[in-house]
Each structure stands twice: as C-alpha cells, then as structure tokens.
C-alpha cells in the first residue's frame, strides 16, 4: 500500500529530517505542482516529477536524494514539465534509452541477424575479431541511441597508428548503425560515421621475384623429401602459385570441383568461379591420392576433412627460404605480377583472379612498366634503324 502525504516544501533540511517509514510514501512539494519525493521503507528517497500524457498519469525519476539535491531535482522537474508542454514524454524517452542496446549488444545482433546470413565465413571471422578486439573495448558500453560523431572521431584518432584497423573499425560501425536505423534503434539518416575522414592506407603488396620463386621451390621440394611437410601441404602451396587462387579456395577444394581444364568453384569469395587449370597444376593433382569418404583435395593429417591450418607450415617454409616477410596471400600477388609483366591484359587477369571489378586488378598495372619500357625501346630501335637506312 502507498500513502500520499500532505504537500510541503521539499528542502534538503526537511528531507534529511524525515523519519523512517514502514510503507512507501510520496511527499508532494507545496510550491511546484507535480514535483515530489518517493520515500521507501529501506530509507531510500527518490525525487520524482508527475505529469499527464495522452490522458494517462506518468512519473519520471529525477535522482536519489544525496546524489542530487532538492534544488537540482526541482530544476529537472521544471525542465521535464517544459518538455511535456512541447509534446514530449520524458518518462517514455528515458525508458526507451534504458531499453536501447549498447554498441556491443548491437554488434552481437549484427553478427547473428545480418553477417551470418549475408557474408562469407572469412568475412564473418574478420567482423567478429574486429568487434571483439577493436570496437568493443572503447565503444562497446555506449548506447546505440547516444553514440555521437565525437565518440567515433575519438575512436578513430586513438587508432591512428594502425590506420587499417582504424578505418575498418569505422567501416563496421557504419554498417551496424545503418542497420540500427533500419531496426528502429536510431532516427533515419543519423549515422554519425559519415563525416569521418578515413586515413590513407599504404597497401602492402609483396611479390616474389624469379630468384625467390626458385628458392621457394627448392625449399618446398627439400621439406617434402625430408618429411617436414606432407605431399598435400606441398601441393597446396604449389597450386596457390600455379592458379592464383585464394588460400581458402585451395584449402577447401573438393574433388567434385576439379575437371581436366578448370576448377569449378560453386561459392568463392566473389560467388561462383571458374578457374583455368594449367597443365602443371593438373599433373600435380594427378599425384594426389583420394581418400575414401573424404571429398577434399588437400586432406589433413588424420585423413579426414581438409587441412585445417596451412599458416603453421607456411611459417616454417618461409623461414627456411629466407622469406619471413612473405604472407600466403603474397603467392596470389606473385601470380598476378607474373601475369602482368608477361603481357596478360587486365580484363583477362580480372577473370582469372575472380575480381569483382577492374579497379582491383588495375592495382597491378604498374608492374607492366618494365615490359612497356622494353617494348617501347624495341619499337624505337626499329624505327631508328629504318630512318638510318633511309638516310
């Protein structure tokens, strides 16, 4: 049961002097209508403001006595009443803010309701790591409805020494906050990431020159002979070099996808993909034994499933070859560099590599400079000779 006391002026001295109660009571202020103090049997005292909205009586807590003073609570009550006069509902807005998820909670929903349905496994893995290691430590506790441009700008600035991480963090926040608008958690067109200027990124591309390619081949052959790597690991890295495939495309390659002339991938990073299979790669595949009941080409050590971790043997291989700065993905870059320097046109290379657009392929265009220079020299030499003969 609740008892309503007669109205009196709520001051600090008066509130401090109140005796303990056995039932919850509300004391109303004598000067400001709707401003009151709720007193609990536990001794807790909370300032409230009461108002009517759409024919219903509502109350909003203004703060606990001792944390806020009676005068501070009185000012907040007046502000709340002014909001009500303008058509706002302070109590409902506060409850909505309390119900609104944090950035961390939005990230969880983003992963389950969006990423898991629309993104490839490798992308899902990247997003999970980005949220867990980069975004959540600084922004995870902020409410989705309250995160601001200033918050994201500070996050971006703090990560300026790692521009790739900083930019990817803003990118994933942008995707999440766009979805928050679609899900009714933020007003439409309120995404605060839009005005963040991304840091320049110097893309790291490493290519093996002919000497390094030869050294890598010698090391792979030696480690295979010595039993340090299996035939399947040996084949995986050779296939990466011979086809320009991505790591996952070879690691999870199934025999059903292999024909005499192509690798027919039903679902690569960029969708369905048909990769030319050169004779050297076909000959290498012919040396691999199939395991009954195992559909994969690059099988694991237990003869079940595909090889789960090719990064570990690669670290040993590159160390022995003196190529410590070379990543597995750089084998794909090497394939592209050899193609460009040997005159393969960008449109053809785009199809071979499975790029979505030509812009990605044209990042390798500068590698053709030497070939162009050589061709130009040959043309000029012939013209000069012809001119000389005419003189």
What does it look like?
This protein is an alpha+beta fold and 391 residues long. The protein contains 16 helices and seven strands. The protein has helices at residues 12-16, 70-85, 90-99, 103-118, 121-139, 149-158, 163-182, 210-225, 231-243, 247-251, 279-286, 311-320, 329-341, 346-353, 358-361, 369-390, and strands spanning 3-4, 25-28, 35-39, 45-53, 56-64, 262-268, 271-276. It is elongated. 24% of the residues are buried.
Low-confidence stretches: none
Q: Which structural category do the helix and sheet elements fall into?
A: alpha+beta
- What general outline do the C-alpha atoms trace? elongated
Number of separate helices: 16
End-to-end Cα distance, whole Å, is: 118 Å
Keywords, please?
391 residues; alpha+beta; 5-stranded mixed sheet; two-stranded antiparallel sheet; 16 helices; 7 strands; 50% helix; 11% strand; elongated
Write the layout of secondary structure elements.
Elements: E1 3-4, H1 12-16, E2 25-28, E3 35-39, E4 45-53, E5 56-64, H2 70-85, H3 90-99, H4 103-118, H5 121-139, H6 149-158, H7 163-182, H8 210-225, H9 231-243, H10 247-251, E6 262-268, E7 271-276, H11 279-286, H12 311-320, H13 329-341, H14 346-353, H15 358-361, H16 369-390
Parallel strand pairs: 1-2
Antiparallel strand pairs: 2-3, 3-4, 4-5, 6-7
Short recap of the structure:
The chain is α+β, with helices and mostly antiparallel strands. It is about 50% helix and about 10% strand.
């Amino acid at each position: 049961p609740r008892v309503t006391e007669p109205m009196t002026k709520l001051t600090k001295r008066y509130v401090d002097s109140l005796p303990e109660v056995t039932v919850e009571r509300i004391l109303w202020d004598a000067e400001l209508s709707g401003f009151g103090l709720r007193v609990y049997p536990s001794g807790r005292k909370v300032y409230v403001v009461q108002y009517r909205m759409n024919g219903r009586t509502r109350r909003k807590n203004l703060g606990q006595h001792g944390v806020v003073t009676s005068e501070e609570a009185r000012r907040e009550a007046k502000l709340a009443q002014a909001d009500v006069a303008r058509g706002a509902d302070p109590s409902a807005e506060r409850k909505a803010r309390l119900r609104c998820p944090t950035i961390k909670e939005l990230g969880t929903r983003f992963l389950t309701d969006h990423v898991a349905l629309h993104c490839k496994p490798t992308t899902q893995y990247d997003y999970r790591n980005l949220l867990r290691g980069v975004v959540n430590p600084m922004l995870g506790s902020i409410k989705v409805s309250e995160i601001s441009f200033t918050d994201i700008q500070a996050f971006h600035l703090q990560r300026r020494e790692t521009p790739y991480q900083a930019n990817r963090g803003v990118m994933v926040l942008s995707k999440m906050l766009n979805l928050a608008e679609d899900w009714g958690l933020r007003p439409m067109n309120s995404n605060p990431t839009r005005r963040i200027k991304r840091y320049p990124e110097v893309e790291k591309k490493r290519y093996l020159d002919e000497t390094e390619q030869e050294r890598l081949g010698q090391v792979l052959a030696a480690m295979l002979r010595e039993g340090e790597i299996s035939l399947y690991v040996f084949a995986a890295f050779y296939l990466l070099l011979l086809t320009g495939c991505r790591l996952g495309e070879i690691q999870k390659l199934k025999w059903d996808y292999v024909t005499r002339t192509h690798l027919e991938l039903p679902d690569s990073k960029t969708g369905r993909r048909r990769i030319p299979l050169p004779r050297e790669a076909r000959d290498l595949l012919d040396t691999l034994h199939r395991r009954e009941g195992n559909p994969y080409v690059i099988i694991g050590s237990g003869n079940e499933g595909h090889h789960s971790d090719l990064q570990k043997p690669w670290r040993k291989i590159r160390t022995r070859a003196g190529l410590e700065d070379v990543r597995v993905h750089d084998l794909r870059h090497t394939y592209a560099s050899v193609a460009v320097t040997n005159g393969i046109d960008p449109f053809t290379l785009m199809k071979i590599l499975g790029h979505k657009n030509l812009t990605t392929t044209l990042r390798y265009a500068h590698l053709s400079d030497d070939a162009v220079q050589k061709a130009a020299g040959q043309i000029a030499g012939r013209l000069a000779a012809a001119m000389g003969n005419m003189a």
